[in-house]
Amino acid sequence: MSPAAPLPAVPATAPPEARDDDAPTHPLSDLIRRLGPEGSVLERQLPFAVLFAVASATFGLPGVRVTDTAPVVVAAGLTVLSLVLALAVPWRRLPGGAEDVLPLLQIAAVAALRMGTGGLASPYAALVYLPVITLSARPGRARIVVATLGTAATVLTSTLVDPDVEQDVVVLRSLLVAASALAISVFVHEMTQRLRAHNRRLQALQVRQAGLLERTRQAAVELQHVASAQRAAREQLISVIDSATEQAIIATDREGLVEVFNPGAERLLGYAQGEVVGRRHLTDFHLRSEIDERRGPHRAAPRPDGEALAEQRDLVDALVAPVRSGSADVRDWTYVRADGTHVVVRLAVTRRLEPDGAVGGYVVVATDVTAEREAARLKDQFIGLVSHELRTPLTSVLGYLELLMDGTEPLSDEQREYLTIVERNARRQLRLVSDLLLSAQVDAGTFAISPQPTDLAAVARASVASAAPTAEQAQVTLVAELEEARLEADPVRLGQVVDNLVSNALKFTPAGGTVRVALTPLPDGGARLAVSDTGIGIPADELAQLTGRFFRATNATRRAIPGVGLGLSITKAVVDAHGGGMEIRSTVGEGTTFLVTLPAVPPGER
Q1: pLDDT tens column, 273-289
Q2: Which of 565, 591, 578, 586 is nearest to 459 (CA)?
Q3: What pLDDT sits at residue 13?
Q4: Stretch (H or E) spanning 254
Q5: CA-CA distance, 579 to 527, in Å (whole number)?
Q6: Which of 452, 456, 599, 454 lies closest to 519 in space, CA to CA?
Q7: How many CB atoms within 10 Å of residue 52?
Q8: Where are the beta strands (DSSP E) in 536-588?
Q9: Are 494 and 567 in contact (CB under 8 A)?
């Protein structure tokens, strides 16, 4: 698979020139923003100053009459004064209401301008609405009242120019102008309030956006680091898989379709990687009959031709069924090579999990065990041959020793001692040969027992009695606690069991220790035999291998304790043949206990 593509870079924040300030706005919204708190103090006065200048330029037009120059000059002075104050005064250091003096000066300028240009007939009355809007756009409803009253005052000042004007007309016009100013003030005030709230929300959203962009950038950087680490780990894994040329490593998806096929698999099966990956299923390399046999009675019925995928899934399920619980499965299978030949492999199957916990596929490691199988066969053949070849002369030696020791010719004490030593060693060699033969029989599947009514206590008592001299010589206390227990069993083979367990306990118990043999009947008619010692113990990680052929514990080999490692494997074979079980409990430095449980009747006799 190709390495993952690099992730695109994510900007930390939007550049300033891409913010909302450059977005197109409606002219009315822009005007309200300029007149509102977002504009500077000077910007909020400029519209009135510009319109006042435009109005001043119309004084010479037909129909425009300047009745009194002094109020016009005052109006111009007030307008200029508002601009100078807006520019020169540090308004940010003053209370918030101090800035209201500027629109009030502009309202006074409008009143003076009307006084100098005809009073009620002045064409410049509408100029008052600009300072009204400026004043109303500021926070606080009191400014609406001030703006309304200021507008009405500009009308009432007209009576100073023309005292003959009817007061009713002046009052009515003042009320109408004030009402319109009130409506405009309320509208502008509410609009600017909403605009402020909108801007606050927008600013909060921009802050959140900046935070999200920053977190996104950090996440992208972390993701790039993770992706780089994954690519490095993947490349390392691929190199490890490719370097494993002695094992076939095959990875599949959930359906068993091959995704990884390493050089070891190419060498073992004879297929090129391109012929297999994405084209063949794992079960294509197995003997179909072997899979069907291991599926047992629960295998699905044959499917129609149109359900090949479902049939393939059934085969994969049968192959990987033991690993569904999450543990690895190691068994021997037969693979079919590209040339049609068969090879026996030891298959370790594990499942591959997705991040969500679902099964994403399976990984199979196959090791060719053909040479191992052949070596085991030759070893068993050699053991059987040697055992038979040694047993005959040893039996003959023991027979002639008996004739010499029991013959009519008298023997001196020294001669009798020599013959006793020869007999003891010959019998020891005969027991070893018998163990080798029995081990070969177990492996060949020809081992059998001859059950008959047996007093297990008598068998155990005889084994303890024969081991007593060895215990005395080793200065180990041998204790027997035997209750009567009768069952159907092979007394000769059970005698071997007790002999092996007791002799092992004596060998691994130092002087001054104790070996205890206990026999108790079971309620169901069987019996439990316990042989315990206070010896050197067995390491916990070696207990599972203890009953394997030729296996010896590390502390036994370290102390050079004699033995070949066959006694416990034979003991287990005899117990298994009787349908019983054997449990081993041990603590290093404290001792070991072997528990043998036997049924009343072997399975074949029920």
Answers
A1: 889 898 888 888 888 88
A2: 578
A3: 41
A4: none
A5: 12
A6: 456
A7: 23
A8: 581-587
A9: no
